[in-house]
Specification:
By secondary structure, the protein is mainly beta. The chain is built from 2 helices and 9 strands. The strands form 2 sheets. Strands 1, 2, 5, 6, 7, 8 and 9 form a 7-stranded antiparallel beta sheet that branches. The chain has a two-stranded antiparallel ribbon with strand order 3-4. Strand 8 and strand 9 form a beta hairpin. The longest helix is centred in the C-terminal third of the chain and has 8 residues. The radius of gyration is 13 Å and the shape is globular. The two termini are 23 Å apart.
């Protein structure tokens, strides 16, 4: 599988890219397919919530997101004005992050 084009989600202040499942030979483990955080904009709601580049988005308000079709789930939640609970994988650990979407429109360009 080929990686997708990065997708910008301004309401959360981040850029996600769908990545295929990979095998970490060093750790003898599998890294699941999913939506990888490739950029977090400074001072965005994601940055303030502690989301970091290379975090893997696993679920949004309990709904699993690991495929291109799941992009619709992510988009649905970025349109809400209520807080959203994100489940992210950082290395071997899972983290729950409460995120308040923002109407911020002055985010910088992403290459």
């Amino acid at each position: 599988p080929v990686e997708s084009t990065p997708v910008r989600f301004d309401a959360w202040g981040l850029v996600l890219q769908l990545v295929p499942e990979t095998r970490d030979e060093r750790k003898q483990s599998v890294v699941p397919a999913g939506w990888l955080v490739v950029a977090v904009f400074p001072d965005s709601s994601s940055a303030l919530a502690g989301i970091e580049e290379q975090d893997l988005l696993v679920a949004v308000d309990g709904e699993m997101v690991a495929t291109e079709q799941d992009r619709e789930i992510i988009e649905k939640f970025t349109e809400r004005s209520e807080p959203v609970l994100l489940s992210v994988r950082r290395g071997d650990r899972m983290k729950l992050v409460a995120l308040m979407p923002s109407d911020q429109q002055t985010l910088p360009d992403f290459p």
